[in-house]
Amino acid sequence: MAGKKTISKWLGKKSIKILIAAAGGLLPFGLILLLGSVFVLILGAGSAYGNSSAGGGGGGIINEQYGDLVAAYAQEYGVPSALVLAVMKAESGFNPTVVSPVGAAGLMQMMPSTFEWMQKSYFPEDHYTAADLFTPEVSIKYGTKYLSTLTKKYEPELESAIAAYNAGSGNVDKWLKNPAYSSGGKLHTIPFAETRAYVKIVMGYYEEYQNQVILPGNPDSGSGALNDNLNAIDGKTNLGLVQFAYNALNAKSGYIYGAYGQTVTMEFLQQQANQFVGNTAANLTPSEVEKIYFKFGGHPSFDCIGLIKAYWWLNESTGKIKYGSNGAADMNATGAYQSAVKKGPIKTMPEIPGLAVWQPGHIGIYVGDGYVIEAQGNSTGVVKTKVSKGRWTHWLQLPYLEYQTS
Q1: How far apart are CA 331 and CA 316, in angstroms?
Q2: Is 91 among the residues known to form the active site?
Q3: Which of 64, 76, 91, 207 is flagged as catalytic?
């Protein structure tokens, strides 16, 4: 907390506004309360399960883009809006274009076969195709209705309903009949590791969303114009990088090789594992994927240089991170060191927050007072460590940043 207080003294009102606008999934649930609430819609988060009402319960700040739709359909189908948001966050990270390896699509990650069944059973007047699952309102409407059918079926056991959303009601019905997994109509063991983690994540978000704040977002894909001269990007400073690093730290961000802010979902983990198959540095074996998902599911993710690139590529106006944007080239940790004009041995590092510390194959962000924030590894994610405890060999001024000392 002392780090946040120090950073706040360096930043003016303009910087604070930029950081709020740039949330993009990186501002943690509580930090925005310290900075001020901007670009959000205040809605009732819904009451506890079993007495649901979208307008009742404790107040909360819900995603502006989908808040109205969630509130409307949650009220219509008798599901707490906080639960709908929790499922949406775990399923898609609020990205309406996500498609899972098995074909689930959209914000609520519904399978086309389930979508077709829902339409025939509950909405025969609709004439949608599977492509309409990418339309936010359609996905929210059908996903909320489906969630409603599950919560009513398994009432009052909310965790069984959430497990069924992930693993299918057929599997949950079998588990409830098996004394090895249940007793008295209540699941005490979920045999699927992914579903165990999924239920834990959704329940955690459900509790958070009843009282807390969320400003979700995801990096955009695509390419941007690359700038070979490494000039400073307008508005990008060393102090802005430090605040960005603190946001990532307080969001309890995970580490995924090749990530630059993407939400930790099983789909993204599998995508990265497929892309870097056999890459020992990535270390995305099936067991590691499961561990990362269980610990960091639903949180932002970075690798070491990705924590820096995400800031370079962040659009402060839209709050989106777009690959290669702002004229900043993609590079690894060694490339950042080699491109630096000012650098030196770690023992000669000046007291300038926002410098990078480097060792072969790894890089971190110096945040002042002898501390570094780094995306460290699969098991630890983004952490704050002492420079003296690391194996850092050099410091450097990063490209694309304007360095300010006061």
Answers
A1: 21
A2: yes
A3: 91
